[in-house]
Amino acid sequence: MAAPQQTWRFPVNRRAVQGVAAGKSFRMLYPMRCSIAKELYWNKGLREYRADRFALDLFCQLARTADVVLDIGANTGLFAMAAAASNPDTKIHAYEIVPDVVVHLVSNLVENEMLSQVEVHSYGIGNSDTTMRVPSQASAPALPSAFSSRIEFSDGARVMFQTLDQQSYFAEGASNVLVKIDVEGTENEILRHGNAFLARFSPDIICELLPDECKVEDVDSHLRANQYKCYKILADRLQFEPVLKPDPAYHDWLFTALEVGELAKRISPLQVF
């Protein structure tokens, strides 16, 4: 007799779901509001796509030896919380510009007892001359997840921006810095106004590049100026790319100044090449 199939119900009344990354777990609140929590619910704690799972595991592995982590475009805190679960001793700074999402992010940190480890900043990273308005409250039940500084709103909360270089005081004394960038196409502005940070700390960077949004020549010029190598993050490995070219199937990249042998040591036991 065949075993009965498990029935998965839509998470209407579900308060929290458990996520898992690199063998460590954390909780994310209210999957009916948070698309990331909903994704973890339907996929039993994992990200839906294998490349997304691998990128998160890779980030966690790098976080285990990081003194400081910057999560730029933190959304509701998936990467920040996964890093905190992987390394309780690292200091994490999470940047998010949407007020409703900031509130949800803080709630997730409280739920996981990570509020003292993860400092939340409700301003953007890019050009310090930039300001924008974002809706102060979401108009839909689900939280927004794809705002960038290129989007214009007629009203809402005014959000300020600082440069990546201005965040240098967070990394004072750090020998190993990790950065995640997910900003819907404005990563070039972060790097353009972050050259001193890159030169000083040589952080490992996990970065999303969207083919239709990325200013690839600008991104590439700042990476090359700071001796970075580019690896496309595939479903189960890293692929070195001598020419930076956004891929419609694989959006996440690792930028690092490390040589291959040193990188392999830092992310062991992941087999990535």
* Name of the CATH superfamily: Vaccinia Virus protein VP39
Named at the architecture level, the CATH assignment is 3-Layer(aba) Sandwich
The CATH topology is what?
Rossmann fold
Low-pLDDT parts are none
User: The biggest beta sheet, please?
Assistant: 8 strands, mixed
Report the span from N to C terminus.
44 Å
Rg of Cα set: 18 Å
Q: Looking across the biggest beta sheet, what order are the strands in?
A: 5-4-3-9-10-13-11-12
Structure explained in plain terms:
The protein has 273 residues and is α/β, with parallel strands linked by helices. It has a single domain (49-267), classed as Vaccinia Virus protein VP39 (Rossmann fold, 3-Layer(aba) Sandwich), CATH 3.40.50. Helices cover 27% and strands 22% of the residues. It has helices at residues 35-42, 50-63, 78-86, 99-111, 187-192, 195-201, 216-225, 260-267, and strands spanning 16-21, 24-29, 68-72, 91-95, 118-121, 124-125, 131-134, 157-162, 177-181, 204-208, 229-233, 238-240, 252-256. The strands form three sheets. Strands 5-4-3-9-10-13-11-12 form an eight-stranded mixed sheet, with helices on one face.
